[in-house]
Structures are given as C-alpha cells and as structure tokens.
Design brief:
Order of helices and strands: EHEEEEEEHEH
Distance between the termini: 91 Å
Largest sheet: 6 strands, antiparallel
Number of helices: 3
Number of strands: 8
Shape: globular
Helix content: 10-25%
Strand order of the largest sheet: 2-3-4-7-1-8
Number of domains: 1
Length: about 170
C-alpha cells in the first residue's frame, strides 16, 4: 500500500474594491478662511452650504484624530449633494499628495446644467482663489476612503439628530 502525497496549494486572493461614485471633485487653493470661501461659493454657484460637525480623520502615523471643517448642501436641484471640505487644519494636511489644494469641493450626481467648466470657472472668479482644478481620477486613490468616512459621518450626524451648525452671513 502506497501513501499518496497530497500537497495543498494555498492561494492568496486579493480583493480590490473599486468604488464607483458619481462625484466631481474640484481642488481649490485659497487663502480664504473656510467660512468665507463657503459664503463666496454660495454666492457664485447659487448654493446653500451649511457648516456641519467637523469630519474626524484618524492619522495612523500619529495615532491621533484630527478634525477637518466640513460644509454641505443637500437640498439643491442641481445635484444630489455637495461638500466643501478643508484639507488643512492646524497645519495638518488631510491629503498630503494634494499639496496645492487647501479645499476640496465635491458634488454628487450633477445635473446637465452643472458642467465642470461652469463650476470651475465660477470658483476661479472668486477673489483670493488662486487655483480651481478638477481632481483627476488617477489622483483620487486615497479619496475613496475619505468619501466612505464622509458618508458614515453624515449618517452618524443624521441618526444622532444633530443639525447643521450655522448658516453663512456676511
């Protein structure tokens, strides 16, 4: 009787999840404070951004959570939802690879009237905006995880009953 050798081959499988969002992301460089930029975006784009509780971001290297100012408008017929997210807070950058962007303006499912050229041109027209540029899909590697965090943060705000914090006033 011969013993048959059974060799087990183990395979490692890698699961890459490609998240599909219908977002347009515009990187903005500006010396304006977040509330002043939000006010100006409201004026030039005809939107109604309101401040929410800051988006908490955990930094593995520091083992620390840093909050980043967040504004949203989810009651507009031109898109499902839009956000203004500050990329810098107290000297900490949310996206170190976006060294030229101080803010990200993100909007989901834009209507045909909301072309990226119209939005970017309007943002560039704001005084003290040095740069407004579409963030290309190959630059968005790390942003998908932030979008997931953003959705979870918004869900948490909604379920906890917290309301939008403040409206812009001049």
């Amino acid at each position: 009787m011969k013993l048959a050798e059974v060799s087990m081959v183990t395979k490692k499988m890698r699961l890459d999840i490609a998240l599909q969002y219908d977002y347009l992301v515009v990187g903005i460089s500006s010396q304006l404070n977040d509330y002043r930029l939000g006010f100006n975006l409201n004026q030039v784009l005809g939107i109604d951004l309101k401040r929410l509780e800051d988006l908490p971001a955990f930094f593995e290297k520091e083992k620390k959570i840093h909050p980043f100012p967040l504004y949203t408008d989810n009651h507009n017929e031109n898109f499902k939802e839009c956000f203004l997210l500050s990329c810098i807070n107290q000297g900490v950058k949310l996206f170190p690879q976006f060294k030229y962007y101080d803010y990200l303006f993100i909007y989901e499912n834009p209507s045909p009237d909301w072309t990226e050229e119209r939005v970017i041109t309007s943002i560039r027209g704001i005084t003290n905006v040095q740069l407004a540029k579409k963030v290309m899909s190959n630059e968005l590697k790390d942003i998908n995880m932030v979008l997931i965090d953003l959705e979870m943060h918004l869900h948490e705000i909604e379920t906890s009953g917290k309301q939008e914090q403040k409206y812009f006033e001049d």
